[in-house]
Design a protein that fits this description.
heterodimer, A: 298 residues, mainly alpha, 2 domains, 3 strands, 74% helix, flat, B: 275 residues, alpha/beta, Rossmann fold, six-stranded mixed beta sheet, four-stranded antiparallel beta sheet, 11 helices, globular
């Protein structure tokens, strides 16, 4: 019972921490607004923005996606802290040095999942008991919280592994725009329906955000958020209104698509970017290097 | 004599809620005409455009494109040759990069890839947006989105281009650029239909004006004929173009000799005054 309560408290803390981070990130995004391509949504969308600003964006998308997925799989399969550390360093190098995304921005993006990882692994490290046991324990009045060196070690290794996996995927998202990732998935023979849905949803997210922002602003200007109860009411009205608008927009979209000879197949123009041999060579060397580390530290 | 390109005969359209939107519309459109379509909100202009493009199916009536009567089977022929630039660019832009967006039409025409790429590059250069080609549409401004939506249609190389209120929500500079594009397209012999509420623009640009009112075409003629007919203007809730009004006032007060040389722009007006 106590464990559940404490878990809940931790979850709340995680949410608050995330919120705070989010706010922080938001200001960050606005800062960019003034000197680069425009951007007006929250941090969640800035990730997409970074992909367009990245200097390794012109690399072949298939290459980037496969490298990052392969690295991710190796991280998990080899399950070795040295491999993980090598991956973290290599991916940070690719994103920050090659992609020229500033270190603070990179860290702030990585910090979004950090809270979840720390809190998630924390529960693995500790346990409760009525008797004092384990290498380290703390008396809390109703019982003992305890942990051991071995457990702490697993936790640290786990954190490193998770971070390596995240940074591998982050390398992909911070350098490849969504449309290109969708294109790679298409080449990998993901079902057509899913591909078409993905492209439409990606485009629609921004339209929905735009509509929502406009409605929210107009509600705000009419005192729609003056107190808690009104805020709830306004939020509900906006949500239902958005449904109606989405349906209308879907109709308008369909008309516009039909006017341009749409006949049931969404086909977009895509182009392959050249992949350089040196890039492939480096990637292969990196993968072999990871496996070698694993063999020598097993 | 100009060749007939599109013939609309007795078109009726009724919306799902029973409201009649088009009430017997007949019009002949000839090659290379520059037509302004005027009329208040809800007078049936947009419905007319969607019908003409085959997006909506008429209740009754015929659409004849170059001697072929359009039915369900050759509908795509119609859509291929008539392009619509929609009023709200956000309702038209569907792809996630500008290049893919402009290529959407040509790709649907099942053209070979080289041809698609050529057309996309041409259309982007035409609208002067080549530098945006890898950008996603959500990082573009309203004017830029409008230009992308026009490039969409240019890439399809359709013979007739329909613009649904193109100047709405554009700043003066973008509106001016749009007019330049329209003049350029006109000089290339494209047939154009533009719906607008800007009577000054219609007076300046159009060779022919159609006035819609409650689902009917109540007037069809040269801009001068239409804008001098007070009865039609009153019926369709339109006002006279400023240039015409000023000229007529000057003539009425005998400040200017009535030579019937109606000026269309301030430049032309200046020339008349300097004579």
């Amino acid at each position: 019972m106590e464990k559940i309560i404490i878990l809940c408290a931790m979850f709340l803390m995680a949410v608050f921490f995330f919120k705070w981070k989010h706010k922080d990130g938001n200001n960050h995004g606005d800062g960019i607004h003034h000197h680069k391509i425009g951007h007006k949504h929250g941090e969640g969308f800035s990730i997409d923005f970074y992909a367009y600003a990245s200097k390794i964006r012109h690399w072949n998308a298939t290459f980037k996606v496969s490298l990052s997925v392969l690295t991710l799989i190796l991280c998990i399969l080899l399950d070795n802290p040295y491999v993980s550390v090598a991956v973290i360093i290599a991916m940070a190098y690719l994103t920050v040095v090659k992609g020229e995304i500033s270190v603070t921005e990179y860290l702030s993006i990585l910090a979004i999942p950090i809270a979840f990882i720390l809190l998630g692994t924390f529960t693995i490290a500790i346990d409760f008991s009525k008797q004092p046991m384990g290498q380290y324990n703390l008396y809390l009045g109703f019982g003992y919280v305890f942990t051991s060196q071995a457990k702490l070690k697993t936790v640290v290794f786990l954190i490193v592994k998770v971070f390596a996996a995240i940074s591998a995927l982050q390398m992909m998202t911070l350098s490849t725009p969504s449309s290109e990732i969708i294109y790679v998935l298409k080449k990998a023979h993901v079902p057509k329906l899913i591909i078409e849905l993905m492209s439409l949803i990606y485009r629609y997210i921004f339209i929905l955000m735009d509509v929502y922002t406009k409605m929210k602003n107009s509600a705000q200007s009419r005192q729609g958020y003056c107190d808690f109860k009104t805020s709830y009411y306004t939020f509900g009205s906006i949500a239902s209104n958005m449904l109606v608008i989405s349906l209308k927009k879907a109709n308008a979209y369909y008309d516009a698509m039909e006017a341009r000879c749409y006949d049931g197949d969404l086909t977009f123009l895509e182009e392959d970017k050249n992949v350089e041999i040196i890039q492939i060579a480096m990637a292969v060397a990196f993968i072999i290097f990871l496996i070698l580390i694993w063999i020598f530290t097993r | 004599m100009k060749k007939l390109i599109l013939k609309v005969e007795d078109l009726y359209y009724i919306y799902g809620n029973g409201k009649s939107a088009l009430d017997g519309v007949s019009v002949d459109i000839y090659e290379g005409e520059k037509i302004a379509v005027l009329g208040s909100n809800g007078s049936g202009k947009s419905t007319f455009f969607l019908n003409v493009d085959g997006v909506l199916t008429q209740e009754q009536g015929k659409i004849i494109y170059r001697d072929t009567v359009i039915n369900k089977k050759n509908l795509n022929e119609l859509r291929k040759n008539i392009g619509i630039v929609f009023q709200d660019a956000d309702n038209q832009i569907i792809a996630s990069t500008v290049r893919a967006e402009v290529a959407f039409g040509p790709m649907n025409l099942k053209l070979p890839k080289e041809e698609v790429l050529k057309r996309v590059d041409e259309a982007l250069a035409y609208m002067n947006i080549s530098e945006f080609k890898d950008r996603p549409p959500h990082y573009l401004s309203g004017g830029e989105k409008k230009r992308v939506s026009i490039a969409d249609i240019i890439a399809m190389k359709s013979e007739i281009i329909i613009f649904d209120e193109p100047t709405a929500a554009l700043d003066p500079l973008n509106a001016h650029m749009l007019e330049e594009v329209l003049v350029k397209l006109g000089s290339e012999g494209k047939t154009m239909l533009i719906s607008t509420h800007d009577v000054d623009f219609a007076y300046r640009w159009a060779e022919r004006v159609l006035v819609f009112c409650e689902g009917k075409i109540i007037a069809d003629g040269t801009p001068l004929e239409i804008f001098q007919n007070k009865e039609i203007l009153r019926q369709a809730n339109l006002k006279q173009p400023t240039m015409l009004e000023v000229y007529e006032l000057l003539v009425e007060k005998h400040l200017l000799e009535d030579t019937k040389a109606y000026p269309k722009s301030t430049q032309e007006f200046k020339e008349i005054l300097e004579k």
